[in-house]
Design goal:
The complex is a heterodimer of chains A (about 325) and B (about 140).
Chain A lengths: L6 E7 L5 H7 L4 H8 E5 L8 H6 L5 E7 L2 E3 H13 E7 H6 L11 H11 L13 H4 L4 E6 L9 E3 L6 H12 L62 H4 L17 H12 L5 H9 L4 H5 L4 H4 L10
Parallel strand pairs in A: 1-2, 1-3, 3-5, 5-7
Antiparallel strand pairs in A: 4-6
Chain B lengths: L6 E6 L3 H10 L8 E6 L7 H9 L4 E6 L10 H19 L6 E5 L5 H18 L3 H4 L2
Helix pairs in contact in B: 1-4
The chains are: A alpha/beta (about 325), B alpha/beta (about 140).
The structure holds FE2/S2 (inorganic) cluster.
FE2/S2 (inorganic) cluster binds next to helix 3 of chain B.
Chain lengths: ~325, ~140
């Protein structure tokens, strides 16, 4: 270790599925290169670290801290703030930390509704006494009223998109971050690197929306087939991993830079490619769209509804 | 104090805005709750504008365009119709009453119609009360 300053890095797992922690391993042998330049000072998921270890570190002593997962509990929030204090660069790692991801869809429901489903109403739940664990008797960290993204809690310096960040995205991000850069990644839409892009007609016109299990895929551009694909509104960089596996994009990479609303831009694009027809038919087709928030804001509901679902009195 | 809603109105330059103008020069009365924004075509109204208006506290959003077949850019109003229909679905799922968003066709000669639909819309929003997003502020 002589001669070369090792970068100190940390990785924390907030409210998420764990895929982000695993994604770091998808670097394969490249992770060894990373370890040549950086030493891990905190990574509770992979090594034995306690929160006290983090508390004892000097403020600003961690060069790069990666926070994956969203903020769902008091504990998540506390560690986010602590990591912010201890780090020079705080990175939102993956879709949950960046924009709330799939678990952010929980913001469509209240905390009570969520507990009700999880502890009482789920078909696989047997809870005759109707017990709902609470912080009072178990000393659990409080479950916050809404799910938050990292940026909604602390200042964030850089974002690595993806659910979880795909290998090319990660490689590119780590390289930039180790050089001290906080902006990286592509600024075009996924269609740019789509393997099906040659089959995209000059003008797309569709007369029906299909969910992807409803139609046999002919191998052409999904949108041209009427299958909803978030590609045009989604940031490139993943090398179209899903589409290469014949699955339309659901948008985990988030919006193309400088676009604020990924969901709305896709909604607008989809409306525009709907062919000309009489008003009744048009209404019928649009009515057939199910789960609009879940389709267009699958990964960004926490940003769309940071305070949870709104309540219009009437 | 009675509730005075704030309504953002996107009016296309060639029809609805001219209609609003006519309503004005003909001295027709309509409530002052609308804040008109002139756009070149109803097809210019990006659904993001609608969301942003609600996010900033609008109680209702009104879009006025040319009658079907009359859009100066041929199909802008048809696109607007589809987008509005989709936005209503999104708003509903978000917990906003879709009646807070209204699209109307008003030609340059329909000053009276403009005054009527705006008055009607204002009444309707008054009934609905303040937008839940405004309440959060
Ligand atoms: S110009 Fe009026 S709607 Fe297009």
């Amino acid at each position: 270790m002589e001669g070369k300053e090792m970068k100190k890095i940390a990785m924390y797992w907030g409210a998420g599925c764990g895929g982000c922690d695993v994604s770091l391993l998808s670097l394969h042998e490249k992770i060894l290169d990373l370890l040549e330049e950086a030493e891990i000072v905190f990574w509770p998921c992979a090594m034995d670290f306690k929160y006290e270890d983090l508390e004892k570190m000097k403020d600003g002593s961690i060069d790069i801290a990666f926070y994956n997962g969203a903020i769902r509990t008091e504990e998540n929030e506390e560690i986010a703030k602590l990591l912010r204090k201890k780090s020079k660069i705080l990175v939102a790692y993956g879709s949950c930390a960046t924009e709330g991801c799939v678990i952010g869809l929980a913001n469509l429901y209240s905390r009570e509704e969520i507990f009700d489903t999880v502890y009482l109403k789920n078909e696989t739940t047997k809870n005759e006494d109707g017990i709902i664990p609470s912080s009072n008797d178990l000393h659990l960290p409080e479950f916050l009223p809404h799910l938050k993204t990292l940026e909604q809690v602390v200042k964030v310096d850089a974002f690595i998109p993806g659910c979880p960040p795909p290998k090319p995205v990660l490689e590119n991000a780590l390289e930039a971050l180790l050089q001290g850069k906080t902006e990286f990644g592509k600024s075009v839409a996924l269609c740019d690197e789509c393997p099906r892009k040659d089959s995209k007609p000059e003008k797309i016109e569709i007369n029906k929306f299909y969910r992807w299990h409803e139609k046999e895929d002919n191998g052409d551009c999904f949108l041209a087939q009427g299958i909803i694909c978030m590609g045009p509104a989604t940031r490139a960089g993943c090398e179209a991993e899903c589409i290469s596996a014949n699955i339309p994009c659901t948008g985990c990479m988030g919006a193309v830079p400088k676009v604020r609303e990924q969901g709305i831009s896709m909604l607008s694009a989809l409306a525009s490619i709907l062919g000309d027809m009489d008003e009744e038919k048009e209404k019928e087709i649009i009515e057939s769209l199910q789960d609009v928030v879940g389709t267009f804001y699958k990964y960004a509901t926490a940003k769309l509804l940071p305070e949870g679902r709104l309540k219009d009195e009437s | 104090m009675s509730f005075e809603p704030k309504i953002v109105a996107f009016l296309c330059n060639w029809c609805a805005y001219a209609g609003a103008d006519l309503a004005g020069t003909s001295r027709l009365q309509y409530p002052a709750n609308i804040v008109p924004i002139r756009v070149m075509c109803s097809g210019r109204v990006d659904p993001e504008f609608i969301l942003e208006a609600f996010r900033k506290g609008a109680d209702g959003v009104f879009i006025g365009g040319c009658h079907p077949g009359d859009c100066h850019y041929v199909s802008g109003n048809y696109k607007a119709r589809k987008r509005v229909e989709m936005m209503k679905k999104l708003l509903k799922e978000m917990g906003i009453n879709p009646r807070r968003l209204r699209l109307e066709w008003v030609s340059a000669t329909e000053g009276q119609k403009f005054a009527d639909v705006v008055s009607q819309f204002v009444e309707e929003i008054k009934e609905l009360g303040p937008s839940p997003w405004r309440e959060k502020k």
